[in-house]
Design brief:
This protein is mostly helical and about 425 residues long. The chain contains 20 helices and no strands.
């Protein structure tokens, strides 16, 4: 079954790609949504946040369920809900229906990162988990690229409503293929013994798993770091970068989409590169994450200090760097996985994903409120400048928190070195 693991990888990556497309899709069509649904900045922020809130709330119960019945059935059931969410959003007539559609989309996509990661923990060796995860994130974040210029072109030609009807059809097709071809674990043939050490299965009881996770100091440090790191990145990449480029800097939607494409391209290149760096050169999840987020904070600080005078080439470079260094935060998943006992892989990663997606919702909505308040108050302050400076401060706090975490057990790092 060693070759079939790449079939598993392909299916898992395709579902994650769709999830990333949905996450980022509000940014480039935000002006259309505001016009067609009569949304102000605060309501637009709530629309973007609703996806993340439902995504976050389902993470822990979903992780516990996945460790017991397996990723395949969990992913299939939730993706059927996502198909319905795309249709509700496409036919929404106002803010309430659109928020409900986005919330249902968040529920539907909730398993499309942790599900593939849980599958990969059973099909691939743990000393290559960060590299495989990085490859998954690179493929998946093509969804962010598709949600930039291609979505702008599709929405211009077909309208955003028809585009989301087509996406619902694609979502349904991928779900059916996953039901037919996904396998929770290898059956027959040689399985690397290192894979079996981290396989899912029944694992510990629900209460014991939760007690182990919630009683870990590292879980809370990594969790709040994930909240702040992905919150800032998702708010910028998934929603507010679009209005900033189009309304604040005067770019047309296609040119703005091209710049957002560079942001996503940086993430795609950075995810496998930084994952591999953590395993073969730095040999430390902790130091790799802290260093990457420190550089990310610098990039966001530059956006906050000079939003008016940035030449297009410098802006493009900063957006690429922002995406590249943000991908260091994805190593938080193998980090928490290495710190928790075998048998609760999905629960541990889903626990971190709760903070990740809750942060995305809080920052998307919070920045919307900040922008609305500053624009309505006539304070003379540049709203986007203050938004970016707030994000840079949050990222600085991530670096401080992460320096307090533990390294992974020594035996895992020895295994990685031998390979």
């Amino acid at each position: 079954m060693s070759g079939y693991r790449w079939v598993i990888f392909g299916l898992g990556s395709s579902l994650f790609l769709l999830s990333m497309f949905y996450r980022a899709s509000s940014a480039i069509i935000a002006p259309d949504l505001a016009r067609d649904l009569s949304l102000d900045y605060e309501t637009l922020g709530l629309l973007g946040a609703s996806f993340y809130y439902t995504f976050a709330l389902v993470q822990l119960p979903m992780g516990l369920l996945m460790d017991r019945i397996g990723p395949r059935l969990t992913m299939a059931g939730l993706n059927l809900a996502g198909t319905g969410g795309a249709l509700v959003f496409a036919f929404s007539g106002g803010a309430a229906t659109a928020v409900a559609g986005r919330a249902l989309l968040g529920l539907g996509m909730a398993a499309n990162l942790i599900g593939p990661l849980s599958l990969f923990s059973r099909w691939f060796r743990p000393d290559r988990f960060a590299s495989i995860q990085g490859l998954l994130l690179s493929v998946g974040n093509l969804g962010g690229i598709l949600a930039a210029t291609p979505l702008a072109l599709a929405a211009g030609a077909l309208g955003w409503r028809s585009t989301f009807v087509g996406l619902a059809g694609l979502n349904l097709a991928l779900t059916l293929v996953a039901i037919l071809f996904l396998r929770d674990s290898p059956q027959g043939g040689e399985v690397d013994p290192l894979v079996r050490t981290t396989g899912g299965g029944a694992g510990a009881g629900v209460g014991r798993s939760l007690a182990t996770l919630l009683g870990s100091r590292d879980y809370w440090l990594i969790g709040w770091s994930a909240f702040l790191r992905y919150g800032t990145y998702a708010a910028i990449q998934g929603l507010w970068a679009g209005p900033f480029l189009i309304e604040r800097l005067g770019y047309d939607p296609v040119r703005a989409g091209n710049l957002l494409l560079l942001l996503n391209l940086g993430f795609i290149i950075g995810a496998p590169a930084i994952g591999r760096l953590s395993e073969t050169y730095v040999r430390s999840r902790k130091r790799t994450i802290a260093g990457g987020i420190a550089v990310m904070a610098g990039a966001v600080l530059c956006l906050g200090l000079w939003p008016d005078s940035l030449p297009a080439a410098v802006l493009a470079g900063l957006l690429f760097l922002l995406g590249f260094t943000s991908s260091a935060g994805n190593i938080m998943y193998p980090h928490i996985k290495g710190l928790m006992p075998p048998g609760m892989t999905s629960t541990a990663m889903a626990g971190i994903n709760f903070f990740t997606m809750a942060g995305a919702g809080a920052f998307s909505q919070g920045i919307g409120r900040l922008l609305e308040k500053l624009m309505a108050g006539g304070s003379g302050k540049d709203p986007y400048q203050w938004a970016f400076l707030s994000c840079a401060l949050a990222l600085g706090l991530v670096v401080a928190l992460y320096l307090l975490t533990r390294e992974e057990p020594e035996d895992f790092m020895k295994t990685a070195k031998m390979k």
